[in-house]
Amino acid sequence: MRVGFAAVVSAIVVVSVSASARAQSGLSVGANAGVAFPAGDISNSVNTGYTVAVTLGAQSKGDPLGFRAEGSFTEFGWSGGFDAKHRIVAGTANLTYDLMPSGTSALYAIGGAGIYGSYDNGPAGPTSRQTSPGFNVGAGYRFALSGFNCYIEGRYHYTTGGSIGNDHYVPVTFGLQF
Fold it and tell me: Which residue has the higher pLDDT, 50 or 161?
């Protein structure tokens, strides 16, 4: 029992110290999730879906320019009652720029490029795999809470190829940064 309690206290101390160190260095880790709206070619074939992502960021205090690497998973259900999914896995490198910083909050622009892998998954398993380059551009609003940041963001993603044409989609997400 004492060992378990000591382990929990040690974990809390390590997380607190590492969060403090990340805040001072400008590094952050985070995650986001939200709704994804299909656009372009895929909007004729799939319904609104969801997206989840993990992030690693860097932005020095007082500097309007920042960097965010992101790994995301997006899934759309096929329209027309098919028991299949259109999935997109992406890794992107993005620049952020604070447009209107205001103390502990900021309206910001974000954009970048990456690699997007898309495939369709039905009852028989994955089919129609495609990997292609793409880019994204959008805006968000970041605000600080006690010890971490939250953000609401919308972005337009465009790829030069997908399993059912060019993949265009607009995720609207809520995220946390530590």
Answer: 50
Cross-strand partners of 110: 96, 138
Which of 1-10, 79-88, 98-107, 158-167 shows the lowest mean pLDDT across its residues? Answer: 1-10
User: What is the rounded CA–CA span in Å between residue 8 and residue 73?
Assistant: 31
Residue 161, phi then psi, degrees to nearest 5 = -170, 150
Alpha-carbon 30 to chain mean position: 9
Q: What is the pTM of this model?
A: 0.83
Q: How many CB atoms lie within 10 A of CB 12?
A: 10
Give the CA count within 13 Å in the CB-facing half-sphere of 31. Answer: 3
- Structural fold of domain 26-177: Porin (2.40.160)
Name residue 72's beta-bridge partners: 53, 90
Residues forming a β-bridge with 100: 107
118: β partners: 88, 130
Give me 25's structure tokens.
């260095």
Domain borders along the chain are 26-177
| Structural element, H or E, at residue 16 | helix 2-25
